[in-house]
Structures are given as C-alpha cells and as structure tokens.
Amino acid sequence: SQTIHQWPATLVQPVGSPLSLECTVEGTSNPNLYWYRQAAGRGLQLLFYSVGIGQISSEVPQNLSASRPQDRQFILSSKKLLLSDSGFYLCAWILTGGPGANVLTFGAGSRLTVL
Amino acid sequence: AQSVTQLGSHVSVSEGALVLLRCNYSSSVPPYLFWYVQYPNQGLQLLLKYTSAATLVKGINGFEAEFKKSETSFHLTKPSAHMSDAAEYFCAVSDTGRRALTFGSGTRLQVQP
Q1: N or C, which end of chain B is more exposed by having fewer CB within 10 Å?
Q2: Going by DSSP bridges, is the β-strand pair B87-95/B100-103 parallel, antiparallel, or unpaired?
Q3: Which residues of A touch B104 (CB under 8 A)?
Q4: What's the CA gap between A27 and A31, in Å, rounded?
C-alpha cells in the first residue's frame, strides 16, 4: 500500500535561519507531488507541485523553494525564514491513473513556527 | 479557474442533530469535487469524492454529499452528529490543468453535548 512520510513533525526556527522539510512516498512510482501550506485560520494554499524528477512548478512568489531529487522525494526549503513562513506544511501525492486518480493523499504535516 | 466557497467558517450543532456544511463551486468544466476532514494537528483525510457518476455520494463516517449542478453546490450532510465529528472540513475542486486541488477556506464543526 502507498504511504507518505513527512519530517520533522514540528519545527521551531529563528528568523533568518534555513529550512528543510522532507517528504517521501512509498508504494507508488512517478506520483505527482505537492506542497501545501495552511496558515492559522486559513485554508490550504498550494505552494509547489511536481510531475517528475527535477520538475517543479511554483504557484506563488515567496521565500520558499522546492526540489525533487528522486522520484518519491520532495523537499521544501528556504535559505532565510521570515515570520510569515510560520504555518502547517502538508505534502501530498496523487495518482495519475486508475481508481484513485485525482484523489490527493496527504502526509501528517510539519508544523513550523518562526520566532 | 476552478474555485470553491464554503459558507460559514464555524458551525455548531448538538450531538444527534443534523450536520450541514455548505460548499459552492465554480468551474468551467465538469468538476471533480471532494470533501476532506482534518483533526487537530493532523493531515487531511478524504471523506468522499464526486467524479461525475452518482450525484449523491456516500463517504466514510456516515457523511454524504449531493452534487447539484443547477445550484453549483456540493453540500456535506450527516443525519446525526457525533462528538467525534468535531473537526475542520474542507471542500475542494479539481484543477485539471495542474492536477491539483483547490480548497475552500474550511468550516470548523463543533458538536455540543
């Protein structure tokens, strides 16, 4: 069965420090991968998505970047965090065919607090 | 572009009462629609999805939703609320161009004893 792992689960970082959040998927190949952010009291904002290794689409201009060095690995990074980067970051994947197509499956999330 | 609007950021019901969470969508193509549930500090879990088959969709935990094209709505209902239903609920519409989902702002459901 397919599973998705995110880490770390919780992170407290000072302003100006770097960030790396990692997401890996098991049990599937060539998934579409996504990073969403959920700020306090808001819905989910799509940050990045990837349809393959090295292919990253950015949805909003921001202080963050994403990379996909391997088929089932998706990394969210920042060189210098801002206070506004605080939030709950969710990695998700989607099947591109079959009965589960178009259904996003989410990881457990990474809560980032920037102080 | 596709979008969804969830009416009511907070809904409070008594245990055993009907749950109704509202969602209206906007889409230039026949949409795929979804409801997800999020418990505190967790990821989102799929409740149900509409993919152009039956207009009444049954999901997990006794929830169901009805697709009404004439009203561009996809409201979520449950006949009898349980304390464990307290969570945040998100309506979403598929964005075929990005193969992603666009989410509403969410509705927090409180269940009073």
Answers
A1: C
A2: antiparallel
A3: 43
A4: 10
Region of B72 on the Ramachandran plot (φ > 0 left; ψ -120 to 50 alpha; else beta):
left
**Tokens 């949805």 map to which residue?**
A59
Query: What is the rounded distance in angstroms from the CA atom of residue B63 to the CA atom of residue B85?
Result: 10
Inspect the interface and report whether the beta carbons of A102 and B49 lie closer than 8 Å: yes
Q: Return the structure tokens found at A99.
A: 């009965």
Residue B107: partners with Cβ closer than 8 Å, 6 or more residues away: B6, B8, B9, B10, B11, B21, B22, B88, B89, B90
Cβ proximity of B107 and B6 under 8 Å: yes
Backbone dihedral region for residue A87 (phi beyond 0: left; psi -120 to 50: alpha; all else: beta): left
Note the Cα B42 to chain centre separation in Å. 17
Pick from B43, B49, B99: which is nearest to A94 by CB?
A: B99
Whether A45 and A38 have beta carbons less than 8 Å apart is answered as: yes
Which pair of tokens denotes residue B69? 């094209």
